[in-house]
UniProtKB/TrEMBL annotation:
<keyword id="KW-0378">Hydrolase</keyword>
<keyword id="KW-0539">Nucleus</keyword>
<dbReference type="InterPro" id="IPR026103">
    <property type="entry name" value="HARBI1_animal"/>
</dbReference>
<dbReference type="GO" id="GO:0004518">
    <property type="term" value="F:nuclease activity"/>
</dbReference>
<dbReference type="GO" id="GO:0016787">
    <property type="term" value="F:hydrolase activity"/>
</dbReference>
<dbReference type="InterPro" id="IPR027806">
    <property type="entry name" value="HARBI1_dom"/>
</dbReference>
<dbReference type="GO" id="GO:0005737">
    <property type="term" value="C:cytoplasm"/>
</dbReference>
<keyword id="KW-0479">Metal-binding</keyword>
<dbReference type="Pfam" id="PF13359">
    <property type="entry name" value="DDE_Tnp_4"/>
</dbReference>
<feature type="domain" description="DDE Tnp4">
    <location>
        <begin position="34"/>
        <end position="182"/>
    </location>
</feature>
<dbReference type="GO" id="GO:0005634">
    <property type="term" value="C:nucleus"/>
</dbReference>
<protein>
    <recommendedName>
        <fullName>Putative nuclease HARBI1</fullName>
    </recommendedName>
</protein>
<keyword id="KW-0540">Nuclease</keyword>
<dbReference type="GO" id="GO:0046872">
    <property type="term" value="F:metal ion binding"/>
</dbReference>
<dbReference type="InterPro" id="IPR045249">
    <property type="entry name" value="HARBI1-like"/>
</dbReference>
<comment type="function">
    <text>Transposase-derived protein that may have nuclease activity. Does not have transposase activity.</text>
</comment>
<keyword id="KW-0963">Cytoplasm</keyword>
Length: 267
């Protein structure tokens, strides 16, 4: 697994990844973009209610992190559909590693994720030109993960139509699709009728764009919304579903693909 799905861990990899993201819209120090996607599954035989997502169907919420070339560098496929994207990230190894300062860079996520010094989210109500430029660059850069998920589901249609299996087997199939996606990308396997989702904008970066983006984010992170003292788990969480009486993962078995490692813990 770690041969094909691994988060950048070496300085050379960090530099290459950051530079590739910077070329999109001038966002500095980006190591990945994160998003969640729901994979439809058959009605589970146990804990059926926790697999119902906000759209009303049974699913697994899979977390995907990718680089600027649509390669998946981290994924977590173990949580039922009722869990919000922010919850899935907070429970992942990647969250802990970024909180510990392991990586010299940041992730980009949508407004459903919590704002952290290493996790940039868009301004909900931009108040000035700098904040609007921040949002514009953020959207253009973060779009790569939406394109990545689109390519993944187009290449492996079972992820789009649904996997008619119990949650644990469905998670294993989805994990295999992630590995095969990266193999296909590495070997330049063409995707039939791929929609690149490219808006065609000129990628020329305005002078000082990176400094404006970082300045806007830093001022925001240090403003009234910033935490005081040790961070508390609920401080930055925008929304998460209330836990069930018993915490349910995919059939009580953790099947995660996180930072290139697969682990199974039986509860």
């Amino acid at each position: 697994m770690n041969t094909y799905v691994s988060f950048p861990s070496q300085p050379v990899q960090h530099n290459i990844t950051r530079q590739a993201f910077f070329q999109i819209a001038g966002f500095p120090d980006v190591l990945g973009c994160v998003d969640g996607t729901h994979i439809r599954i058959k009605t589970p035989s146990e804990h059926e209610n926790v697999f119902v997502n906000r759209k009303g169907f049974h699913s697994i919420n899979a977390q995907i992190v990718c680089d600027a070339d649509l390669k998946i560098t981290n994924c977590v496929i173990k949580w039922p559909g009722s869990k919000h994207d922010s919850y899935v990230l907070r429970q992942s190894n990647l969250w802990n590693e970024f909180e510990a300062g392991t990586y010299p860079g940041r992730l980009l996520g949508d407004s459903g994720y919590p704002l952290r010094p290493w996790l940039m989210t868009p301004y909900l109500n931009p108040a000035n030109n700098n904040e609007e430029r921040f949002n514009s660059a953020h959207i253009k850069t973060r779009n790569v993960v939406e394109r990545c998920i689109g390519v993944l589901k187009k290449r492996w249609a079972c992820l789009h139509r649904g996997i008619v299996m119990e949650p644990d087997r469905a998670a294993a199939v989805a994990g295999a699709c992630v590995v095969l996606h990266n193999m296909a990308m590495a070997w330049n396997v063409p995707l039939v009728e791929e929609d690149a989702n490219d808006d065609g904008d000129d990628r020329d970066i305005p002078q000082g764009q990176g400094r404006i983006i970082i300045g806007a984010h830093w001022a925001r992170a240090q403003g009234p919304m910033a935490t005081k003292g040790p961070w508390q788990p609920n401080t930055w969480l925008l929304w998460a579903p209330p836990p069930a009486e018993r915490e349910v993962r995919v059939c009580e078995r953790e099947v995660s693909y996180s930072v290139g490692k697969r682990k199974q813990n039986y509860g």
